[in-house]
Amino acid sequence: MSWQVYIPRLKQASIMRKVVFLNILLCFALSLQSQTFRDMQLRYERVREASHSSDQVLRSKFEAAGVSYPPKYIYWRAFKTEKQLELWASDDPYKPHKLIYTYNICRLSGMLGFKAKEGDMQIPEGIYYINRFNPWSNYYLSFRLSYPNGVDSFWGYRPKLGGQIFIHGECATIGCLPMTDSMIREIY
Question: Residue 179's pLDDT is what?
Fold first, then answer.
């Protein structure tokens, strides 16, 4: 004797629609995962323009340093007094990074010393990572630094440390690292 499950036709059609919908949703989610960060950023017109205008220049800078392009590992180092932002890169996390290029920071605010609170016009000093890319910035293109870090939180004025510290285009600042629009095209 065989057992058969009786499901009315309407219920079968409803279940099939749900299965098809879930399959489409799964395919969509998998297609998003296969996109690189660069692919997702290239959806924005400013990023596409920046990539198009600076890709060959960057490729030649990396080639001259003997590092593949696009790089696998990068490190940014900024110096306030010298008004410089250095790009270092490597193909291997266990080998030393090589200096690729030094960009000039076009304007500074504040003075030497750490940032104590929001609105003090100080540029932070410390170790940070990039925690947000902004392709629709008011300053052409920008990326935000992870200020405040643990040291900033310990030494700074706790209720109002601030947090909107960016490297961006347009040569204006009240605590960020401004580059010119042409430089931020390469940097971004």
Answer: 96
R_g of the chain, CA atoms, integer Å: 24
Tell me how crowded residue 136 is: count the other CB atoms within 10 A of its CB.
11
Q: Which pairs count as long-range contacts for 158-162, CB under 8 Å and 24+ apart, including other chains?
A: 160/117, 160/118, 160/119, 161/115, 161/117, 161/118, 162/115, 162/117, 162/118, 162/119
Does 27 participate in catalysis according to the annotation?
A: no
Annotated catalytic residue, options 27, 97, 106, 168: 168
Closest by alpha carbon to 134, among 112, 96, 159, 164? 164
Least confident of 8-22, 24-38, 61-75, 173-187: 8-22
Cα–Cα distance, 58 to 70 (Å, whole number): 9
H helices of 34-134, in order, are 37-41, 45-65
Q: For the sheet containing 73-79, what is the strand order?
A: 73-79, 84-90, 98-104
Q: Tell me whether the omega of the peptide bond preceding residue 96 falls within 30 degrees of 0, making it cis.
A: no
User: Using CA atoms, how far apart are residues 122 and 115, in angstroms rounded to an integer?
Assistant: 5
Q: For residue 99, what are its two tokens?
A: 């200096």
**168 annotated active-site:** yes
